[in-house]
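ping. complex inputs:
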Amino acid sequence: MTIRVRIALATVALLGGLLACALERPLPSDEPIPPDASAAPQVVAAYHLVEDGRQQLAIGQTAAAIATFQKALALAPSSPHANFALGEAKLRQADYRAALIYGDRVARLVGNDPEWRRRVALLRGQAYEGAGDMARAREAYLDVLRLDPGSGEARDGLGRLGDAPPIP
Amino acid sequence: MASSRRPRRRRRGRWAVWLVLAVGAGYLGSLYLTVTSRFEGPRWKVPSTVYAEPVTIYPGMDLAAHQIHDRLLRLGYGPVAGGPTRPGEFRWTDDRLDLYLQDFVYPDHRVQGFPVAADLRNHRVERLVRSDDGVSIPSVDLEPEVIAGLFDESWEGRRLVRLADVPPALVDAIVSIEDVRFYNHWGIDPRAIARALWTDLKEREFAQGGSTLTQQLVKNFYLTQERTLYRKATEALMALMLEARYSKGEILEAYLNEIYLGQRGDMGVYGVGEASILYFGKDVERLTPAESALLAGMIRSPRAYNPQTDPDRARARRDRVIRRMVELGKIGAANADAALTDPVPTRPKARTAVRAPYVADVVREQLERLYSRDVLTSEGLRIFTSLDVEKQRAAEEALRAGLAGLERRLPKGPEPLQGGVIVMQPQTGHILALIGGRDYGETQFNRMTQARRQPGSLFKPIAYLAALRKDAETGAPRYTPVSVVEDVPVTVMANGQPWTPQNYDKVYHGPVTLRTALEYSFNAAAVGVAQAIGVERIIETARALGLTTPLPPVPSLVLGTSEVIPLELAAAYAVLANFGARTEPLMIKAVMDRDGQVLARKEIAVDQVVSPEEAYLITSLLRGVVERGTGRGVRALGFDRPVAGKTGTTSDFRDAWFVGYTPETLALVWVGYDHNQSLHLTGAQAALPIWTDVMRRVTAGEPITDFTPPPGIVLRRIDPASGLLSNSRCPDAITEAFLAGTEPTGSCAGGPPRFLRWLRQVWG
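pong. complex structure:
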């Protein structure tokens, strides 16, 4: 095996490992946040569609899941759930610019809700990190820690950026 | 002599026999080739079907506002007095909608029709339940409406089925009533022919055919419908060949897919697959014996035995089929009795569908980049679009009524007044409605996607956006909404000639804020701003917004003298509505083949081309256009949602435009003549009323939302005259938006303090 072939194989293995890490990294959402009682009916319906889409995602039907999220968005463009789900999907697809756009939309829609802000900050952190904008990624992870000092994802993110995670 | 002539004659006779035999063999050979080549190749050209967006029903939805009743009728649902018991039926009362969904294959999943109940209050859904298991459901989709077919000569709707998927009862019913000796003959049935001949002789007309299923297939598949003995003989020969070459199963399957079974509007319904959806709302494999008998009975005359138009006659025919099946032992007595008591589906003929021919052309044009024309017209693709049928219909009505109203006011011109409408959803880029002209039958030219027109003042917001954007070098914008600009005569060189733009009212207004200049669409001020920031910067912004047509760097560019494609203009405004994120205009969402495999899927493509804050500033200015400026007619006409918009008029009044958006819906309207005659009307006079009507209709039932300022925006109370912060001395303040850090710091000097003004009022 020539040295060039070895270098090529090592590069492929490294890239594969990095990709696997990116896919394995937990996404910035966990439990669903139900819409509040004042939400428009379309927004409530979009929330349920997004939950259906998440189930499709969980069983590996990625294209169908994204189609469901898009359907939710078309039904209720001001749905934070639909926008956030698409942001997550774009993050998975390594389309970081699009992930940030959806994150910004959610931020405009949810105002000061701390749980939404935490999730959006985490989405931003991971999107900026993926896009190679480490300064903004750091800022976003620190935002997460300000809202949730125990956030493991934010600490992991900062760790990847080479920063010592602050003590919770 | 005579003896020598005889052998020659004999030889000639032999030659003649050989010639006849050779010609006969050649004819038979060519017939055989015809039979086999068509039967073994692609048998049918199945046109592609274009679908609109399915409608989602959910708790809280206003069914009246979303025209659900009309949609149901167009989808072929029929009202029933009792509860719906089969797909395609519904019952609507004041407080409840019971609905039995029809089968449908979506790009991601197949839905087998099921019953749904919606509790209603004032047409609004309170709760949705699956009636078969009583479980609450969050939403349910009505299957999408067909808006067009892509075909070459005629629209033959056909869903191909395999024999294995066809219920035996349907095969038995067809064989029993159409060709009882099908499994025993060789393609023709001498007994049936003799019986038919006898009947024809008795009746003294050529009415009874005595055709077997194989002959019927040959007639429909290979031959014309003419009634001649030659055609009948050819049919018989081909039937024999077909039977000699292929199995009964293959022939039967072809027959089941070939037969004509009625019309759905302008689409012919061919084969039992399409027919079972039309008449029973379900896939063929789920047909009951009674439904099978009804369908079999229709073969002889789909028009006469159509259950949608003559249920009594259809029922009598069905009962005859069932009784024949009993005679032949194809159905047991108990099953036959049950089938005979089964009511015939009573739903009326589907209401005329909404067709969107301009949309179909756009779909065809886009898909021809991926598939050949032949594939599009013969492979039975199913194309799912973003079109909202009700919004399309509403926009069509508004345009039709608006143009008719304008023509009553205008002197009769040499050609009909034209118009076009685009309705888009900024966040998804979905095109919800598209009307490329007044009458597709008259002219197929799509004025929204194919035309290039001058945008007039619709271009100004693009120039003002360029002025409000942060400079790459300084990091600060050149202008804010309250920057004072000069609306004064300005002379610039255009094509080597001095050019002095004028305002619509022929008056120059002196120093005004940038907001005022845009709200009232002052031309001179706009040219001044363009000169100050440079035309190249405006072109750069226009490109970022997605305009692709040539934009020469001339001073008049800011006044919209360079032609643009209306759809691109709508998409550019959608960027403003969408906080600077550009979504590619999207019409085709998915393409599926006839077997349900997804061939292509289009995701929403989004890119941030302008900052959310800069886009918001323009939205804020365009809201002022509607509240106070040239677009105030929108309010006068009663449209009271939060909205931003802009009027546009081109030189000599050749084009009248209005484009505007709520946070979730954008519409663009153009009115003009194809050959550029003057309308003698402005955008506010000609296009704005139509736009208002369109938006009033398409936003009905949608939630009212407002434009939320993004985080980098600060709002301040401003004195509109000076552009400075307001205080008690200048009370007529408005709320103004600024990029953070660009807001004014000084206060207006104004008149006397409020206290003194009050004293003056008190003391006269």
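The interface with chain A takes residues 53, 56, 58-61, 107-109, 138-139, 386, 425-428, 430, 579, 581, 589-590, 598, 601, 603-608, 612, 663-664, 702-703, 705, 708, 710-711 of chain B (CB under 8 Å).
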